[in-house]
Amino acid sequence: MADLLELDDICAGYGRIEALSGVSLRVPEGGIVALLGANGAGKTTTLNVVSGIVAPTRGEVRLAGRSLRGLGSDAIVAAGISQVPEGREIFRDMSVHENLVIGAHARRDKAGIARDIEVMTGYFPILAKRFRQMAGTMSGGEQQMLLIARALMARPKLLLLDEPSLGLSPLLVQQIFDIIVRLHRDEKLTLLIVEQNAAVALAVSDYAYILENGEVVAKGPSAVLAADDSLRAAYLGA
Ligand SMILES: Nc1ncnc2c1ncn2[C@@H]1O[C@H](COP(=O)(O)OP(=O)(O)OP(=O)(O)O)[C@@H](O)[C@H]1O
Ligand SMILES: [Mg+2]
After folding, report:
1. Whose alpha carbon is nearest atom 26 of ligand 1?
2. Cβ contacts of 149 within 8 Å, gap of 6 or more
3. Contact (Cβ atoms closer than 8 angstroms) between residue 102 and residue 116
4. Domain spanning 1-80+157-238 has what CATH number?
5. Does residue 65 sit in helix, strand or coil?
6. Cβ(202)–Cβ(184) under 8 Å?
7. In the sheet where 81-84 sits, what is the strand order?
8. Which residues does 72 contact at the CB level (< 8 Å), separation at least 6?
9. Which of 1, 41, 31 has the alpha carbon at shortest distance from 215?
C-alpha cells in the first residue's frame, strides 16, 4: 500500500535541546502505526512536527507524497491531518456540541458538519447523552472521547493520537480502542498512535516504531515486536 505519511530523517528540538535526531517513519494509507517509547523519548515531538506545531531543523514530512514544509497548523489540518493532543485540551466552558462544531471550524459544508455530528455521536453514544453539558464537567474518559470526536470533525485522512489511554481505567481504554478500530475500518481512517501502553497499542496496530532518546531503536510488524521478550524488557517496561 502507498505511504500516506512519510518522515525522512527528522531532527527537531526546543532551543538547544535536541528532541529528535534523525527520525524516519512511514504510515501506509489505511494502516495503523504505533509509536512507542518511554517518557521523554520524543513521541509527542514527533506528532507535533507532523502537525506543524514544531518546525523540524532537518528532514522532511510528506503527506501522500507532498512535502508539508512551510505549512502552518491550519494548512496541515486542511491537508488532512488532525491531532488529538496529549493531556485533554478541551474547551471546558463550552458544551460538547460546541466543542464538536469547533473541530469543524475549517469546513464550510454546514449540512456535512451536522451529519458528521450525528456520525460522531453514533460512535461515541455518551457524547449524545452529554450534548449540552459543559465539557469541563465530564469524566476523563468522556473528555478523551470528545477530543477524538472533535479531531474527527475536521474529516482527516490521518489521525494522530497522543496517549489516548493516559489516566484511564483498563475498561475505558479497551472501549476507546474498540471505537478507534471501528473508525479505522468503517471510516477508512489512517492512524498514527503514540502510546506508553505498549500492549494495547501493539494489539491494534499493524506496525510499530520504538523511540528512545529521539531515535528509532526498533521497528517491525506489531505482532513480531509483541512477541519479542527482550525488546519488551529493554524498551517497553513489560
Ligand atoms: N516545550 C519544551 N521545551 C523544552 N523541552 C521540551 C519541550 N517539550 C519537550 N521537551 C523535551 O524534549 C524531549 C522529548 O519530549 P517529548 O514530549 O516529545 O517526549 P514524549 O516521548 O512525548 O514523552 P511523554 O511520554 O512523557 O509524553 C524531552 O527531553 C523533553 O524534556
Ligand atoms: Mg508525550
Report:
1. 39
2. 100, 103, 120, 121, 123, 124, 127
3. no
4. 3.40.50.300
5. coil
6. no
7. 81-84, 158-162, 190-195, 32-36, 207-212, 215-221
8. 52
9. 41
Ligand 1 atom 7 nearest Cα: 14
Q: Which three cell numbers stand for residue 163?
A: 496517549
CA–centroid distance, residue 213 to ligand 2 (Å): 13
pLDDT tens string 39-85: 999 999 999 999 999 999 999 999 999 999 999 999 999 999 999 99
For residue range 19-46, what is the model confidence (pLDDT) as tens digits?
A: 999 999 999 999 999 999 999 999 999 9
Question: What is the 211 CA–ligand 1 centroid distance (Å)?
Answer: 12
Average pLDDT, the chain: 94
Residue identifier of the C-alpha nearest atom 18 of ligand 1: 42
Cβ(41) – ligand 1 distance below 6 Å: yes
DSSP state of 95: B
Residue type for position 48:
N
Domain residue spans in the chain? Answer: 1-80+157-238, 89-155
Q: Which three three-digit cell numbers place residue 116?
A: 458528521
Alpha-carbon gap, residue 162 to 87, rounded angstroms: 8
Q: Among 165, 157, 235, 168, which residue's Cα sits nearest to residue 204?
A: 165
Q: Going edge to edge, which strands form the sheet with 17-28?
A: 17-28, 3-14, 58-63, 66-67
**65 CB neighbour count, 10 Å cutoff:** 9
Axis crossing angle, helix 140-152 with helix 110-123, rounded to the nearest 10: 140
